[in-house]
Design brief:
5-stranded mixed sheet, 240 residues, alpha/beta, 39% helix, 13% strand, 9 helices
Length: 240
């Protein structure tokens, strides 16, 4: 009943939300296959703008003939377009869909020592080390950090990653929102790193990493001001 009228009010019917379909366009992948590219790795990074925690790189290996001949699982999209529960579900979908996948990291100490771009290169090489070789890497963004040369110190101290052969790289601006091969990597990277930061939050609860994943949220900056930086903070970044 509506107050003061004595008349029954019909319930408001809300339109049902359509399921999130995700990305399905494989036109670029078909073009690459036609040009002779048989295998590719979709790659994306996560954690670039964080104050704490590692940078992460997700990578997924695709056989283009198999990819273009089958249906793409529903829901795969840029991780930023997905809710937290949807990300976790889609990460499981990607894992079941493509067996050759990896998420690798470069630590805060490595970021401080090498610089952010070279640390991303190191993490990317670590991801490649866990995958079969490929003809091409589709890398999200406009800058090819994966092909940067590692420093002499990196060659000496960073193990198998230093000897990885980096395939030719093609950068794609906003590729995680347009190409399923990159979006799959973005979801794995985001879910993997968020989980790692949630684990670290149990040891350092004041910083709210289970919610902000190390990004410069107000509660994170306030905790740095009150408690100082931890071993997981990037000392080369402006923390104050």
């Amino acid at each position: 009943m509506t107050a003061g009228t004595g008349r029954a009010t019909a319930p408001v019917r809300r339109a049902a939300r359509k399921p999130f379909a995700g990305l399905t366009d494989l036109s670029l992948e078909r073009e690459l296959l036609a040009s002779g590219v048989r295998t590719l790795i979709g790659m994306d990074e996560v954690g670039r703008g964080c104050l704490a925690g590692p940078v992460g790189v997700g990578a997924v290996h695709f056989d283009l003939a198999a990819l273009t001949a089958a249906e793409v699982p529903a829901g795969i999209h840029d991780s930023k377009q997905l809710s937290i529960p949807a990300r976790a579900r889609i990460a499981e979908v990607v894992a079941a869909w493509q067996p050759h996948r990896a998420v690798a990291y470069a630590s805060p100490a490595e970021i401080d020592a090498l610089g952010l771009s070279s640390a991303l290169c190191l993490a990317g090489r670590r991801a490649l080390a866990g995958l079969p070789g490929a003809d091409l890497v589709l890398l999200d963004g406009s800058f090819d950090w994966l092909s940067l040369p590692l420093t002499f110190d990196a060659l000496e101290h960073y193990g198998d990653a230093a000897g990885v052969v980096v395939p030719p790289v093609r950068t794609v601006v906003k590729g995680d929102g347009t190409h399923v091969t990159i979006a799959a990597a973005s979801v794995l990277a985001k879910v993997g790193r968020d989980g790692l930061m949630a684990e670290l939050a149990e040891q350092f609860p004041a910083y709210g990493w289970e919610r902000n994943a190390g990004y410069p949220a107000p509660v994170h900056r306030a905790a740095i001001a009150e408690h100082g930086a931890t071993v997981h903070h990037r000392r080369s970044f402006r923390l104050g």
